[in-house]
Amino acid sequence: MTNAERAIGRRIEAVKRRGKNILVGLSGGAFLRVHLKMTGNCLVVPDVRLRAATVRAWFGLEDGRGLVLDDPRALGRISFHEESEREALFAGLGPEPDDAAFTVAHLAACARKTVKPVKLLLMEQKAVVGLGNIYAAEALFQAGIDPKKPSSRISGPKLRALHGAIVGVLRIALDSAVAAYEQPGGFAEGENFPVAVYGREGEQCFRCQSVIRRIPQGGRSTYYCPGCQK
């Protein structure tokens, strides 16, 4: 039986989030796990029959509307799970940025365990969840940390600054996402987020007027200010 077939006839009872995953709670002790990846949007459309060509998955509702995954690059994923699978499914994820478990001490402990560049540590979702490429770059800029710096070599004061920057950046990101979703049409990642470095290669830093640089890290582009981030 496919994921879609297992969802037929169930009632949507809740919508929650864990890290970058949208969890659609279903009747009968099950849930859909939706990961939007880079270009996905999870939307309710007024008529499931009139879905866009870029919709990759859809679920028809009783009143004719549809819950759809609209994803131009087809990177997003939807999977069906029983409630009993939840703990194992997310066992490798770190704490949420607003959880009491996400402390400076926790971040420092994660950093001490590895010499990998701090940007890659943040992107792994093990030290803290919710940081995508844009927000990781912006948090590192706010904390004044070079994204190439080995995690275990970051000082205590810098780690405290990074902890505060992560929480602050994600709060602003949440507000910007809500504002974007309230507007008609599609939603692009971080479209309303006030970036300081991301996507600004070759432009001057707002703080020190150094030229913003871009480097490849982990298959993604990292943007940073060589003047502000040491």
In short:
The protein has two domains: 3-89, MutM-like, N-terminal (N-terminal domain of MutM-like DNA repair proteins, Alpha-Beta Barrel); 104-224, Helicase, Ruva Protein, domain 3 (Orthogonal Bundle).
Fold topology:
Elements: H1 3-7, E1 12-18, E2 21-26, E3 30-35, E4 41-45, E5 55-60, E6 66-70, E7 77-82, H2 86-89, H3 104-112, H4 118-123, H5 133-143, H6 156-181, E8 213-217, E9 220-224
List the main descriptive attributes of the protein structure presented here.
9 strands, three-stranded antiparallel β-sheet, Helicase, Ruva Protein, domain 3, 230 residues, 22% strand, N-terminal domain of MutM-like DNA repair proteins, four-stranded antiparallel β-sheet, single chain, alpha+beta, 2 domains
Q: What features would you describe in this structure?
A:
This protein has 230 residues and is of the alpha+beta class. It has two domains: 3-89, MutM-like, N-terminal (N-terminal domain of MutM-like DNA repair proteins, Alpha-Beta Barrel); 104-224, Orthogonal Bundle (Helicase, Ruva Protein, domain 3). Helices cover 27% and strands 22% of the residues. The strands form three sheets. Strands 1-2-3-7 form a four-stranded antiparallel beta sheet. It has a three-stranded antiparallel beta sheet with strand order 4-6-5, with no helix packed on it. The protein has a two-stranded antiparallel ribbon with strand order 8-9. Helix 5 crosses helix 6 (156-181). The longest helix is centred in the last third of the chain and has 26 residues, at 156-181. The mean pLDDT is 92.
